[in-house]
Specification:
Oligomer: single chain
CATH class of the largest domain: Alpha Beta
Bound molecules: cobalt (II) ion
Number of strands: 8
Number of helices: 3
CATH superfamily of the largest domain: 2,3-Dihydroxybiphenyl 1,2-Dioxygenase, domain 1
Strand order of the largest sheet: 2-3-4-1-5-8-7-6
Order of helices and strands: EHEEEHEHEEE
CATH topology of the largest domain: 2,3-Dihydroxybiphenyl 1,2-Dioxygenase, domain 1
Structural class: alpha+beta
Shape: globular
Low-confidence stretches: 1-5
């Protein structure tokens, strides 16, 4: 069947890598490690109560590394750390200018969006969602809205 270039063939347009994210059992120790062993600048620690994580960002030069420690009993990264006790790469985040379009395409392609299936708003006011690793060759992929006004 000929495709008509309609809705169904829309792609998730990626503008670049926003951050890599690592789950760690002890955020302070991890910050110390990146500051002292690599000499990287690290942001202040932030608690994101509704996402169940305590985070800080490491400046790697061309990309940020997100360090996450579980926060609270229901933290979504707790199970990950039970399996990977010293920590490990948890997800990577890609930027897109059209977040709602990306979400629609993800659903149309039959990929599973984590949570209730809609986008959430990050602590810096950007929309984002996660695609289940079973649909992405094993990587948890976060898709985040690309906007520069933050
Ligand atoms: Co992230």
């Amino acid at each position: 069947m000929e495709n008509n270039g309609g809705e169904k063939n829309k792609k998730i347009k990626i503008k670049g890598l926003d951050h890599l994210s690592v789950a760690v059992p002890d955020l302070e120790k991890a910050i110390d490690f990146y500051q002292n062993s690599f000499g990287c600048a690290v942001t202040n620690t932030k608690i994101l109560e509704n996402q169940g994580v305590k985070i800080a960002y490491v400046d790697l030069g061309n990309v940020q590394l997100e360090l996450m420690e579980p926060y609270g009993e229901t933290s979504p990264i707790k199970k990950f750390l039970d399996r990977n006790t010293s920590g490990g790469i948890h997800h990577f985040c890609l930027r897109t200018e059209d977040l709602e379009g990306a979400l629609q395409t993800t659903r149309q392609e039959g990929m599973q969006v984590l949570g209730d299936g809609s986008a959430s708003i990050s602590h810096h006011g950007k929309k984002f969602f996660f695609i289940h690793p079973k649909d992405t060759f094993g990587s948890l992929i976060e898709i985040e809205e690309d906007k520069n006004d933050h």
